[in-house]
């Protein structure tokens, strides 16, 4: 195994979440009699550049082609993408002659926000979700992004003033090829904007459930600064945002194209102060994750022993990591309630917990609901309570809290 950024082979392996199936590999009823493919899910820390990454890579075609996630079902992300495009339009004075690309565009939700401004748009996404974008008249190239694809797009459409990659930049296996493609496609003053889960939040908030096979890397700014420089790019701005329990939005461009703001160095200083470049920090994180697992198992087992019912709210990828890590037996929760028609009627990977319509929660009124999208608890709890659920919520991490 080599570091994605510095090619080093010396790692500190610190958190083993076991062998798990891909977190979005939901099962149909006819699949229940078949074995599931599982892969190691373990985090390691590069002792040379400080990158945190997985130590086993699942081929991307096994993760992204038949995909059950679509952005439009996530209200907080829809708001985030709307606000991002509004910011880009104003900050970089985009006009109808400019070209904006979204890599990993999914169902086209982000790109749709450019439409009122007349900006030329293109999505690039290899998954089945791209068909939803095409149905909504969002121009989309169904393919994995690479330098070869970038050159094809450049030849057909020209160079892009804005390239976004939200919740995809950490997923890319061929990272250098990806960034070479970005550098190829940008105009001289063009801007690459990425959003990824932020390692600083993951460590300080004990977000071990943010680890799954799609997320190959867990970014902090110091290693990324080195990565961008290798491709003639530089970060000129960075900001923490609230999505996915804490993410980092990074603005990068060709070296010298934009003034480098002090936001970058400010966040790097915070990372260093938090110990993100020390092995001891990750050993402590792993210990806390394993203790949290024991706490979740203990509380739910005690409640079920008293005849209480426990169900899961949502079936997000992060929830499947948590359930598979914590499920010492198959009866951790009875079922998962969902709004997404893409998941209802299926079974969660690994645990094989049935996914049912959210309406069942209000009919059954189980005593406890395990909030698997705990990062948006402030949004979900009032909605679910207002819709008629009378039981208690379990927020699983960073400590088991009952609401």
Tell me the layout of helices and strands.
Elements: E1 11-20, E2 39-46, E3 52-54, H1 75-91, E4 99-103, H2 109-112, E5 120-124, H3 130-135, E6 140-141, H4 147-157, E7 160-166, H5 175-185, E8 186-197, H6 199-204, E9 217-218, H7 221-229, E10 233-241, E11 247-254, H8 263-273, H9 279-305, E12 310-313, H10 317-326, E13 336-338, E14 355-357, H11 359-364, E15 368-371, H12 377-386, E16 392-395, E17 401-402
Parallel strand pairs: 4-5, 4-7, 5-6, 7-8, 12-13, 12-15, 13-14, 15-16
Antiparallel strand pairs: 1-2, 2-3, 3-9, 8-11, 10-11, 16-17
Helix pairs in contact: 4-5
Give the tags:
single chain, 403 residues, alpha/beta, Rossmann fold, 6-stranded mixed beta sheet, 12 helices, 23% strand
Report on the structure:
The structure is a single chain. This protein is an alpha/beta fold and 403 residues long. The chain has a domain at 303-402: Rossmann fold. Helices cover 32% and strands 23% of the residues. It contains 12 helices and 17 strands. It has helices at 75-91, 109-112, 130-135, 147-157, 175-185, 199-204, 221-229, 263-273, 279-305, 317-326, 359-364, 377-386; strands spanning 11-20, 39-46, 52-54, 99-103, 120-124, 140-141, 160-166, 186-197, 217-218, 233-241, 247-254, 310-313, 336-338, 355-357, 368-371, 392-395, 401-402. Strands 6-5-4-7-8-11-10 form a 7-stranded mixed β-sheet. A 6-stranded mixed β-sheet has the order 14-13-12-15-16-17. The chain has a 4-stranded antiparallel β-sheet with strand order 1-2-3-9. A hairpin with a 5-residue loop joins β16 and β17 (401-402). α4 (147-157) packs parallel to α5. It is globular. The protein starts with 10 loop residues before the first strand and ends with a strand. The mean pLDDT is 93.
